[in-house]
Amino acid sequence: MTGEExxxxxxxxxxxxxxxxxxxxxxxxxxxxxDLLEHIDRDVFGDIPGVVSRQExxxxxxxxxxxxxxxxxxxxxxxxxxxxxxxxxxxLVAYRRLLDTGWLTExxxxxxxxxxxNANGRLILTILLEIKAGRTRSYGGEVLxxxxxxxxxxxxxxxxxxxxxxxERSAKSFMHHLRSISSAIRQIEEELVGQTDMRTLFRKxxxxxxxxxxxxxxxxxKSTTNPFRFRRKIIDTAEGILANEIRMTVLSEAYVKExxxxxxxxxxxxVTQELRNVISVFDRIGDYLEIIEATxxxxxxxxxxxxxxxxxIAETKTERVIxxxxxxxxxxxxxxxxxSLPHSxxxxxxxxxxxxxxxHKREREAAKPQKIRREAPDPAFLAYRAALDxxxxxxxxxxxxxxxxxxxxxxxxQELQAADMPLSSxxxxxxxxxxxxxxxxxxxxxxxxxxxxxxPTQFENEWISCPDFVVRRVGKVASHAGA
Length: 483
Known about the structure:
- By secondary structure, the protein is mainly α.
- It has helices at residues 3-11, 30-44, 54-68, 87-100, 119-133, 139-155, 162-193, 198-221, 231-243, 245-257, 264-283, 285-308, 310-315, 318-329, 379-395, 399-410, 426-434, and strands at 52-53, 104-109, 112-117, 415-417, 450-460, 465-473.
- It folds into three domains: 3-130, Winged helix-like DNA-binding domain superfamily/Winged helix DNA-binding domain (Arc Repressor Mutant, subunit A, Orthogonal Bundle), CATH 1.10.10; 136-303, no CATH class; 391-473, no CATH class.
- Helix content is 55%, strand content 8%.
- Strand 2 (104-109) and strand 3 form a beta hairpin.
- The radius of gyration is 37 Å and the shape is flat.
- 17% of the residues are buried.
């Protein structure tokens, strides 16, 4: 396979899966092979760190056939091959079937023939076993995992950079779980709408909906210890990492060092995208909860209406009519015997009463005007907001503020070292900290006036420790001193 063909295979949805890997689930023995794969994964390869010999795995398959599949019919797909009758023959047929479909891989280790599971097949089997285990899942652990991963990356970005990617993966897994809950509840709703038998209706409601979703998942959403109490903290932590240029730079360098990015710029964009994906997931949680809540209300309303009118529905059942006719047939007397039976049927002529006459609608009373009282704002809140605005105005670095700082520092010079920059106050520190990203500030407005070069050495003083750099003028720019 050429490099281009290999890339095309990886870019497709099935990636590098063996082409016949799902063919094993298409025959009459598909349930047998499904249970056999679970047995091989759990009991044969479960506790073994390496590979197993061919004899060991065929023996394990034979033991499984003796225990679970004595009556299964396994036919070899080879032409003119007789059907396997004994347990040993069935074990060989099953083994060859797993090899041909790509679930098992056979190779030689010196003089031994050993067997291992296909790497991509193992991933597929893990997902299938998770689906078999049930639809309920502890997604509270997923949310807490996102928070712990982000906090780890924030505290130790150099050694815990992988935590950012793990946080994004856990966030996506959590979102997929919410989608699966919404989809499964809608499916149950559709099945309930089509049910006419009361017994099946209530069994589906209480077994499928109440037990699997309402108690295991939805009730947890309504509890005071629900995992969404970490939602605001997750968003704040991710936004805090994005706003910290030093932290983002260290994470980007760690990505390059660990082989997850080709360059610092590419890794910086990758970390930014992963953090924004986490923020997007937890920003849209409310929409999914509204969908689940609306579907839950419709299901409960349908069951409530069914319970309300169940007596009337039960009165029209055919079984009671058949029972009444059978009792009439058992009565002694001629076949044309007339009986007087009490009934509650409506008369042929409609009964007209006062309630059937036209009645005017009652007029609604006009709403009386009420005074709207506006409370005076809290002085402490106003002071807090003013202090917050002052802090944001002081820490926000605009292109004009940085240009004024640089022009004052340059004077008549064309090149300026990091050690020559003025750094004697917090205002100077806020600007100095952002100098290494001046090409991105103001949509690149400063990039036309200044160029920055990062040195391999380290710059340290009482204010900051960072990579050393040099800032140069680009073109002729009038200095503030000359102005």
